[in-house]
Write a structure and sequence with these properties.
This is DUF7424 domain-containing protein. It is built from five helices and eleven strands. It is an alpha+beta fold and 209 residues long.
Length: 209
């Protein structure tokens, strides 16, 4: 019976969403010095508590914890909560912002001061692939970040294959007024390229004179 339950759970969780999001400052993204910041990692689970005993964690929550810790050994589990019809496990992880060289497992930077990249390490991709092979949770990752204009100049930018504040674009030209912070989410094509090539180009950003 337990085996049948696990098989059923595996089918239900096929395509489970894993959302990584954070807030970054433009000045940090283009900085030559890398810095470490916190990011939210949210994993959809079947439920937060066991269906027979609500005082216990569900099997899928336990599995989500194992999966996240196998990829991010310094991840911190925060809570499991219900949002509308979905149960979600929230974790805090660290990512790198800025820097001329690739230094973090997940890094958002602009080495040339213009082209904003998301980069991932070989080790990170290998750990994700290994986790996929061992877990009943089939990871379908999403990555988004809000980039705040903190330089008191309007920033012109072009975006490739991404969502801006929820609207999808294959290519878009726009600007970021001072103190505003548009949310940028990578498209599925950009995510696929990120895991294959270890980088994805978000777009080109240039402050106005």
């Amino acid at each position: 019976m337990k085996k049948l339950i696990l098989i059923a759970v595996a089918f239900v969780l096929f395509g489970c969403k894993v959302d990584l999001s954070t807030d970054v400052n433009y000045s940090d993204v283009v900085s030559d010095e890398p810095k470490t910041i916190d990011a939210n990692l949210i994993v959809e689970v079947m439920s937060c508590s066991d269906y027979q005993d609500s005082r216990k964690e569900s099997e899928t929550l336990i599995e989500a914890k194992k999966m996240v810790l196998s990829i991010f050994d310094e991840a911190k589990y925060i809570e499991c909560y219900r949002e509308k019809m979905n149960s979600k496990a929230l974790f805090k992880i660290s990512i790198t912002v800025g820097g001329k060289d690739k230094t973090g497992d997940i890094q958002i930077s602009a080495p040339d001061k213009t082209t904003v990249l998301v980069q991932v390490s070989d080790q990170f991709v290998n750990m994700v692939n290994l986790s996929k092979s061992k877990s009943i949770i089939n990871i379908k990752p999403n990555l988004s970040f809000s980039i705040k204009n903190d330089i008191n100049k309007e920033i012109d930018f072009s975006i490739y294959g991404a969502f801006i504040n929820g609207d999808g674009y294959s290519y878009a030209l726009a600007s970021i007024p001072p103190e505003s912070a548009p949310n940028i989410k990578l498209s599925n094509a950009s995510i696929d390229h990120l895991f294959k090539a270890k980088f994805a180009i978000v777009g080109a950003f240039k402050p106005r004179d």
